[in-house]
Amino acid sequence: MSKEEVKVSKKETDVKDWTICEATAQMLNRARLDGVETAFDRAASMKACPIGADSACCKHCAMGPCRLNSKDPYSKVGVCGADIDTIQARNFARMVAAGSASHTDHGMAMLDLFRDVVTGKNTDYSIKDPLKLEDVAASIGIETKDREIKDIAMDLYHELERTYTQVDGEIPFAKRVPPATLETWRKYGLVPRGAMREIMELMHRTHMGVDQQHENITRQSSRTALADGWGGSMVATEISDILFGTPSPVVAEVDMGVLKEDEVNVIVHGHEPNLFESMLASVNDPTLLEGAKKAGAKGINLVGMCCSGAEMMSRHGIPHGGNFMSTEPILCTGAVDAMAVDVQCIQQGLAKVADCYGTPLFTTNPRCRIEGVTHIEFHEHEPRESTDEIVIRAITRFKNRTARVEIPKLKSTGVHGFSFEYINYMLGGSFRGSYKPLNDNIINGRIRGVAGVVGCTNPRVKQDWVHVELVKELIKNDVLVLQTGCSQIALAKAGLLRPEAAHLAGKGLAEVCETVGMPPVLGLGSCVDNSRILIAASEMVRTGGLGNSLADLPVAGAAPEWMSEKAICIGQYFVASGVFTVFGVTFPIIEGTKFHKLLFEGLEKQGMGKWGFTPDPYEMARMMIEHIDKKRKALGLDKARERVLMSMEDRQKLDAA
């Protein structure tokens, strides 16, 4: 798109309508002046398909594609006779299958690396947290007393391998599920056997002419989603902690102001920590640092983006440049000397933007290549070959920079790295670590409940706005918020991951935060680390006083700006686990259909959670608080409480913070 075309097509649009992130807005204005197109431009010029948005179309065979009428969904059927409920259930199921496959493949890659480290095949990585290794092993019944770490690790590998390859039985981490929740799963045939089996069966069932009952398809969708949440994702998180260290609170900077004009800026963007861990070693290599200085740089500045960035920020305090919708705009600074990507949430549009500003873009994973982009493959058994080469090329680009550098002077400092283990320690200390203080404060009403606010950013809505407004409403009403992924970055930029943000919380939550010295919003890491929320919720049940199953807890979840199939899978595994889960932006379903009624009402009647939908953050907060209060009442904890709305004075205080 030429400069003239960009100006004409966007002359009526203020970039502030697209984002509340000031750094992103600044770079979008620069992109506009430079004639550079981004995802924001493409979203504005391309209307979403209304039939596809409602999931009222089927393209699973060559008799179609078949389009049904979303206004009168039962007025017609597909060529094969499939009705709207079958079509919607199949489309939803395939999103779950793709999302589960993404996290499962990530988890299996981590497990492969773990095996090679344990057997000595890979000496570039090591077990950094043997205590976490023992805890994970013990949680699934592996004997640890008086045994060598290597022997425990080998047993753990073989046990966790069943998460993927087992064709019958129950996945290992089912042992962590509260008994009452597990009983519900067994009643409806939802306990995952092995991820490969569940994903394969779900794809088979959704083939033309196979499963044609929406309830039956949804059962397998739940089983496949649970294979992600309690399988692939949980394995990825636990193995990452064992190999690279379990996160504990660390102060880190977020936003584009973390870039440095006088240093070589290297960005890593994606989801797998292996590449990032090796890059951390490369940028600290004395020889490469000397090379950077000879090129005129003061040093090498490593910056994260998206989920692997969130994970490294939580584990090592690596600065973070921005979430998913900022990955193109940050290249417009002209200051990025290399961007290395691996898998998931990598926009193909990065290639053109990088080319416009002379930024070397590198793909590194065999699962993800981009047309016209240089591929430097990353191999775990010789990781530095790839990451050293990327740093060398970044140094060369710094020395020969031609693009004008414009770095937004915006960054926010916050506290990240609240793993399950640290929350346990934080609440009880080294010798009496426990979730009992959390449960007690929920029981006595200081904390109303807990909410997980997670997920992506989406150009169909104003970037970050729904995340921020929702969380402000929740903490104002004494709801403790747990965060992962791009949502965590949105709130970090808004300053809510600082202990000082407690003054924006309700009186009860603020009192707890000030006593413990924590923010009212706890950042847990990447989107795969949603499994930390499942583990924390299970510990709340085990600790006692808040019911017998996950469905009894006064908790709720939300993905306010979701955009990927992974998000649908995450939502379904939270719903199947017993959590009320609200999505924003859009939802691939037609209201009034049987399938809609099943997801939004029927699953809860079976002892699980349920779905909710609204694009409005204030309505979303109302729905979540109403659900939390309903669960409090069922537990006998109902005290007369009113929902408090965020005042203009509160908003001004936040802006000034």
What topology does this entry show?
Blueprint lengths: L2 H8 L11 H13 L4 H7 L4 H4 L3 E2 L7 E2 L16 H36 L10 H10 L9 H17 L13 H10 L6 H11 L8 H31 L5 E5 L9 E6 L3 H11 L2 H9 L5 E6 H11 L19 E6 L8 H7 L4 E3 L10 E2 L7 H17 L12 E5 L3 H9 L7 H8 L5 E5 L11 H12 L2 E5 L1 H9 L13 H10 L4 E3 L6 H14 L11 E5 L5 H13 L2 E4 L10 H12 L5 E3 L3 H18 L13 H9 L1
Parallel strand pairs: 4-5, 4-6, 6-7, 7-8, 10-11, 10-13, 11-12, 13-14, 14-15
Antiparallel strand pairs: 1-2, 3-9
Helix pairs in contact: 5-7, 5-9, 5-10, 5-22, 6-7, 6-10, 9-10, 10-21, 10-22, 11-15, 13-19, 18-24
Question: Could you walk me through the main structural features you see in this protein, from its secondary elements to its overall organization?
Answer:
The structure is a single chain. This protein is α/β, with parallel strands linked by helices and 657 residues long. The protein folds into 4 domains: 3-50, no CATH class; 84-243, Up-down Bundle (Substrate Binding Domain Of Dnak, Chain:A, Domain 2), CATH 1.20.1270; 250-399, Rossmann fold (3-Layer(aba) Sandwich); 419-656, Rossmann fold (3-Layer(aba) Sandwich). It has 25 helices and 15 strands. Strands 12-11-10-13-14-15 form a 6-stranded parallel beta sheet, with helices on both faces. Helix 5 (84-119) packs across helix 22. It is globular and about 65 Å long. The two termini are 39 Å apart. Mean pLDDT is 94; it is low at 5-10.
What key attributes describe this structure?
657 residues; alpha/beta; Substrate Binding Domain Of Dnak, Chain:A, Domain 2; Rossmann fold
- Provide the residue-averaged pLDDT: 94
Shape: globular
Total helical segments: 25
State the domain count: 4
What separation lies between the terminal Cα atoms?
A: 39 Å
Remind me, CATH topology of the largest domain?
Answer: Rossmann fold
Helix content: 40-55%
What's the CATH class label of the largest domain? Alpha Beta
Q: Into which percentage range does the β-strand content fall?
A: 5-15%
Corresponding CATH architecture of the largest domain? 3-Layer(aba) Sandwich
Largest sheet: 6 strands, parallel
Report the C-alpha radius of gyration, rounded.
24 Å
Q: Please tally the β strands and state the result.
A: 15
Strand order of the largest sheet: 12-11-10-13-14-15
Seen as an oligomer or otherwise, the chain set is single chain
| Strand-pairing-aware structural class | alpha/beta
Uncertain regions spanning at least 5 consecutive residues? 5-10
